[in-house]
Amino acid sequence: MAYSIANGKPDLKGLPHSWVKEANEAQTLTIELVDEVSKLEFDLIYTIYRYRPIIARSVLVKNNGDDSVYLEKAASMQIDFVDRDFETITLPGAHANERHMQRQSINQGVHVYGSHRGASSHQMNPFIALVNKDTDEYQGDAYGFAFVYSGNHAIEVEKDQFNQTRLNIGISDYNFDWKLEKGAEFQTPEVIMTYSNTGLNKMSQNFHKLIHDRIIRSKYKDQVRPILVNNWEATYFDFNEEKLKPIVDDAKKLGIEMFVLDDGWFGHRDDDNSSLGDWKVFKKKFPNGLGHFADYVHKQGLKFGLWFEPEMISYDSDLYKAHPDYLMHVPGRKPSPSRNQYILDLGRKEVRDNIYNQMVEVLDSVDIDYIKWDMNRHISDVFEHDLPSERQGESYHRYILGVYDLMNRFAINYPNILIEGCSGGGGRFDAGMAYYTPQIWASDNSDAIARLTIQYGTSLVYPQSMMTSHVSVSPNEQNGRITPFDTRGAVAMWGDLGYELDLTKMSEEDSQKVKEQVKDYKAIREVTQYGDLYRLKNPKYGNQAAWMVVSPNQDEAIVTWVQILSYAQSYLTKTKLVGLDPTRHYKDLATGEVYGGDELMEMGIYDPVIHKDFASKMYHFKAVD
């Protein structure tokens, strides 16, 4: 056994990872363990940040022996706790119902939280916290662990016969079997670890700052994100250039800053049965070319965004006709469709090159400001056609490495394009994707009340600037709920605001509300997107939700309160603020009233009594020194 200590932090080849700007902001400890029989070397890599309560942990496996070996499990970290009676907090969910906080006691045995779906998944986010039983948002111990990976993962919690608690995190060993040739290396993804002795909110802020400062690389990481309108829920597949122009015109009138053209612009795609893999403009919809429409959008003063689903292929496509072997499938068996689409074998470089070259032709011929990168199904029929049968256990991981390689090419070669991630909504919302896409569509469920718990859970790990949240039509198309326009806007302003509806069909009253929301959001978004987030009331455990964001210098705060159901006889309730300077005074810009920071935090503000379901109120406070 040996060890070394070096300034800085090594890059993880082919994998997303945290990084440093200057070598002196972190030190890396590498512990070398060697198996005397097989000569396998395991380098345990710990990077400790100097001014952040963060440790990054991964493992590099080296085959220094004379024979090939098969790695059947390669975890990234393990930690043991003695004499601790923890509870776990995880983020399970489902499509359109992602990342709900789940808190459980740890009983004896092994408990596994993970994904076998090929992606980090809607079903179980790659995160866990170990907390004391009395830990809440603002008191108690919280140990947080975020896996910087977007594929199959396993988080194993074991309480043994001695009441020790062991945590193990890494790539899932489900169908994993990696052949390590003589002299070869295998790098595991890293786990980001943090600790807070003042509750969950501080743990979250530690994650937020690390992910924003040292995982996201995009030039847009510190820029206010544009307010967009997406045509999907307005038109679905039924559109052409002339039908889209009035939406663009109305967006300009309302102050919206970007128009995003969603699914259906390519191949011959009028429904979800065709054309994935054919990234060429659909001439019937754009007879003058896509560039002609993009120019129209830009002339209205808006940015132009475009939807892609680069990881998928349709049977009814030119790509499939030319390269049927590009479709991931088990030889001799018919692959399983989902949403009438199939998966490309992105573990193969030739497949990635084909998709990259097609997309580059579009990006180099059309002035595009934004890409929505979608992935609308789980991975099945897993088989990589350039690997022999004894190496098919590598397929899941090679697929994710292929996705990372493809995304990295765009991130490096098109730095001026803002890329937003999406996977059936929030199915791949993880720290690994943040390395390539600085914002991610949080859920296909755009209902504001459903979004309360989704966004609350998401904020446990991920900064609000990563979370896109749109105002959609009411009644909501996913669940039929009727929610006031103000509340839909208030909830959407938690993240990066956008609109997912047909602007041309709105009433005059709703159009005016959009105009006001856009104006208000532009005045506060620098704070709401990049300030310090404080969760005040959890909608999972009560009839209200509340959160606030405070500017770094504590001179501005935005507070949002939402009532879920109304009652004939209402209780008087208060919301206590957090994170202000107790020695300063703050003005409520709507009323002009001035409060002491200590008063707002110790006494709080009375919540309004509103006899209406799904009501909301937003407060904007500024220091008046």
Characteristic key phrases:
single chain, 625 residues, alpha+beta, 10-stranded antiparallel sheet, 8-stranded parallel beta barrel, 34 strands
Number of DSSP helical runs: 12
* Largest sheet composition: 10 strands, antiparallel
How much of the sequence lies in strands comes to: 25-35%
Sequence stretches where pLDDT stays below 50 over 5 or more residues: none
* Radius of gyration, CA atoms, in whole angstroms: 25 Å
Q: So what's the overall shape?
A: globular
Average residue pLDDT: 97
What is the percent of helical residues?
A: 10-25%
Structural class given helices, strands, pairing?
alpha+beta
Straight-line N-to-C gap: 59 Å
Query: Got a strand count?
Result: 34
Could you give a short description of this structure?
The chain has 625 residues and is of the alpha+beta class.
Explain the overall architecture.
- The protein is an alpha+beta fold and 625 residues long.
- Helix content is 22%, strand content 28%.
- It contains twelve helices and 34 strands.
- Strands 1, 2, 3, 4, 7, 8, 10, 11, 15 and 16 form a ten-stranded antiparallel β-sheet that branches. An eight-stranded parallel β-barrel has the order 17-18-19-22-23-24-25-26, surrounded by four helices. Strands 27-28-29-34-31-32 form a six-stranded antiparallel β-sheet.
- Helix 6 packs parallel to helix 7 (395-413) and helix 9 runs parallel beside helix 10.
- It is globular.
- The protein starts with a strand and ends with a strand.
- The mean pLDDT is 97.
